[in-house]
Amino acid sequence: MAEKVLLVDDEKEFVEGLAERMELRGMNVDTCTNPEKALDMVNGDSYDAIILDLQMPGVDGIEVLKHIKKNKPEMQVILLSGHATVEKGIEAMKLGAMDFVEKPADIDVLTEKIKKAQARKMVLVEKATEKKVKDIIEHKGW
What we know:
The chain is an alpha/beta fold. The protein is about 55% helix and about 20% strand. The protein has helices at about 10-25, 35-45, 60-70, 85-95, 105-140, and strands at about 5-10, 30, 50-55, 75-80, 100. Strand 4 (about 75-80), helix 4 and strand 5 form a beta-alpha-beta unit.
């Protein structure tokens, strides 16, 4: 099954180039250059992995990550930055980011991380489904 990815970065040329390379590897890629619009996309759809730039004008990647993890905790976020700091990386991981990668990211490494994100999301969704079924069985007066 093809991985469904949302790529969010304010650099349009970077987004287009990376999306093309990811699509050549069989992924379904949506792109967005506006962090506020990206939140709408996340709320309206489901992604296996969200590749998110750390530094964007307006709302930065850390704030977008907080919103995603609050509303869709099963979604896996990989932060991407050309100006990474250890402190920001630690903060991102504490907030629930799956990984933190520096630009320019090696496409093979990023592809492997996206595959791991898809697998991790599937496990989380299965656990949530099992819990719902168990709750229904326990609380339903058959």
